[in-house]
Structures are given as C-alpha cells and as structure tokens.
Write a structure and sequence with these properties.
It is a single chain. The chain has about 325 residues and is mainly beta. The chain has a single domain, classed as Porin, CATH 2.40.160. It has three helices and 14 strands. Strands 1-2-3-4-5-6-7-8-9-10-11-14 form a twelve-stranded antiparallel barrel. A two-stranded antiparallel ribbon has the order 12-13. The radius of gyration is 25 Å and the shape is globular.
C-alpha cells in the first residue's frame, strides 16, 4: 500500500477519534446540564375533632407526583400533579348534619433559582396545602420557587392559587394566596380571593429525606361574585357570604359552614408516619370574640375581613404517606 494512502487512513482515523471524543463529551455535558429528582406519594390523614357538645371524624385521601429539574445548577423548574378526596375537613362542610365529599385535582407548575451545594437528601414540601401530599422535591441547598396551582373541584370550585417557596438546607417556608401581594402584580393567581384564599407552611427537613416537623396554616372562605371586591371598595368590614347555618338543608345551599381556618402541627416519628394536632375553626379572643390569623393580616393591610365564626374544634389525628422515588434512565 502506498505511503500516501497509509497517511490518509491514519489521518481519517485521527479525525474519527477526535469526533468521537467531542461527541461523547458533548453528550455527557448535556446530560449533566439538567438533573432530575422525581417522587410519587400517596396516603391518608384521619383526624378526630372535638368541640363543645360534638365530636366527629374527618378524613383526607391523597396522592401526588412531582418532577423537579435543575438546569446548570442555577435554574429550577417543577411540575406536581395531585389529587385529594376529603370530608369533614377544611374545605368541606364541617356541620355534622351535612355530609359532602370534595375532590380536588391540582396541577402545580413552578420555576425559580437555586444555589449552593447538592445535598445528599431530598427536601419535600408542597405549594398548596389542601392535603398532605408533596408536590416538590429538591436536593439543592438554597431554592427560591414561584408556582401557580390550578385546582379543579367536583363542586366547580375551580381556582388558581399562587405560591412562593424559600428553601434552605434544614427548613422550607411556603406562602400561598389567590389574590394578595405579590400575586396582585404577578399573574400566578386568579385574584378572586375565594375558597383556598391563603396559607403558610413551614417544613423542617432531616438528612433521611423526610420532614421531622411541619406547621401549616390555611384559610378557606365562601364566595359570591364580586362581593369581596365591592365590600373592600365600600368599606364594609365583614362581607356576608352565606345564609345562617339554620338553612343548611336548603337544596340550593352551596357553601354553608365552609368559612374556616386550620392550624396544623404534624410530627413525623419515622418516615411515612406522623401525628397531627391542631385547631379547626376560629380562634377565640377575650370576651369570646372569634378571629383568625388572616384577620390580623387583612387588618394591617386595610382589607375587608373574611368571616370565620366556625366553632372551634381541637383535633388529634395521624397521617400515613408512602414515599417512593422515581428514577430517570440516563
């Protein structure tokens, strides 16, 4: 074989080797640009409610999935669908004489920034607290996430709730609202100030990829078109959403006894099993005046108040949540 031919073959081999190395490097780099964590969970919460003269049980069944991607260790995006079925709990009629079943199907979309080192454990939290599923799981030390939660309900209580989450290595704080600042400027909520109107969640994480302690406050209100907006404009302090509870047997009654608040402390003794203790209904001030945490916020902001005269109930319960990681093939 002539020397020139041998030289050409050697040159082609060199080029092929270089191209192979470049292609392999590019593919590896592309795979490493986005890192995913994904998880599926399902479970239930059973609470025993105690109040003056009555006791009843409330139950929530739930399921959730989340996939969270981190792009170039700087940008984070999240998708978390979930389903919640519940009765005699916040968001359902708490009058013991009325039985209703609520079903929420939610889709949560989030985008934000992240930083710091990759953690050896996953931090789980949720962007809306209609049940105890998790729709976010992250492994970055610091995360700031803005989310929109689209809720479809079997009683046509369809709404969009905005959410902001700030996550640190040991704790995550989440704030959700469907109309207050900053969601009256950032279009992540529908701004009707109804149903799941506001919430606060604090999640304490451990290194075994589950939360040790969770605290959640949530406000649920009724809704009549433009009533809250007109009340704020006219200076009416407490708009009247619904008829009195004595009319709950009316066939057209839609939102009776739905206006309420929940203050929940959840303690996990091991992964998947927690004890719940909290208050469902209004808090009571001096002289028996009912109030809620959101009343304080609305008073400071000069907004009309959401009526919450739901009788105070102390509850004790338990939560089971099966956590299963889902892995993507590389």
């Amino acid at each position: 074989m002539p020397n020139s031919t041998i030289a050409k073959i050697a040159s082609l081999k060199s080029i092929m080797v270089v191209l192979t190395m470049l292609t392999s490097t590019a593919a590896t780099s592309q795979k490493e640009e986005v890192k995913y964590t994904s998880q599926f969970n399902f479970g239930c919460t059973l609470n025993l409610n105690y109040s003056k003269g009555q006791q009843f049980a409330g139950v929530k069944l739930f399921g959730g999935f989340n996939v969270t991607g981190v792009y170039k260790s700087t940008w984070v995006f999240n998708y978390g669908p979930s389903i919640a079925i519940y009765t005699k709990s916040l968001g359902a009629n708490t009058n013991p004489l009325v039985n209703d079943i609520q079903l929420d199907f939610a889709n949560s979309f989030g985008v934000g920034v992240c930083g710091g080192s990759d953690l050896s454990y996953i931090k789980y939290f949720r962007t809306i607290n209609n049940a105890s599923y998790y729709n976010v799981g992250v492994q970055k030390s610091f995360v700031g996430l803005m989310s929109a939660n689209f809720i479809v309900n079997n009683h046509h209580r369809n709404q969009t709730v905005g959410s902001i989450s700030l996550s640190f290595p040991g704790v995550t704080i989440n704030y959700a609202n469907d109309g207050a600042f900053p969601f009256n400027y950032v279009p992540l909520a529908d701004n009707f100030d109804r149903w799941w109107t506001g919430g606060l969640g604090i999640y304490f994480h451990n290194r075994q990829s589950y939360n040790t302690v969770e605290f959640n406050f949530d406000q649920f209100t009724g809704y009549e078109p433009l009533l809250y907006e007109m009340s704020s404009m006219l200076g009416i302090n407490v708009p009247r959403y619904i008829p009195e509870d004595s009319s709950v047997n009316r066939k057209k009654e839609r939102y009776g006894s739905y206006n309420s608040s929940s203050y929940n402390l959840k303690i996990y003794f091991t992964k998947g099993y927690a004890v719940d203790i909290g208050v469902l209904g209004c808090l009571v001030g001096r002289g028996g005046t009912p109030f809620g945490l959101q009343d304080i916020i609305h008073t400071l902001g000069g907004y009309a108040l959401h009526p919450n005269t739901d009788p105070t109930k102390i509850y004790l319960g338990a939560t089971f949540n099966n956590l299963s990681n889902v892995y993507f093939k590389k």
